[in-house]
Design goal:
- This protein has 3 helices and 5 strands.
- It is globular and about 30 Å long.
- The protein has a 3-stranded antiparallel beta sheet. Strands 2-3 form a two-stranded antiparallel ribbon.
- It is of the alpha+beta class and about 80 residues long.
- The longest helix is centred in the N-terminal third of the chain and has 15 residues.
Length: about 80
């Protein structure tokens, strides 16, 4: 059974709701290991990042209840 971007985004939402915070580096590592490399890409700065499709779905799922902290590279429950 193939894993979808929506399943990855749902995992992200559950994590940030449970812990209150989700660091990008931790999310990238977990997604890569548990969902597959297809949901990870290297961004313009040369860093691994979560696919734009996953982030788009994640944003739709959280409906503004999660905020991105640029300085800390994490999502936080608001």
């Amino acid at each position: 059974m193939e894993i979808t971007a929506e399943e990855v985004a749902e995992w992200m939402l559950k994590e940030v709701r449970f812990a209150g915070i989700l660091y990008q580096a931790q999310a990238v590592a977990y997604i890569s290991e548990n969902f597959g490399e297809s949901f990870i890409y290297v961004n313009d700065n040369g860093n691994p990042s979560i696919s734009k499709e996953v982030k788009k779905i994640f944003k739709k799922l959280h409906k503004g209840r999660v905020a991105w902290d640029r300085d800390g590279f994490f999502w936080g429950w608001t």
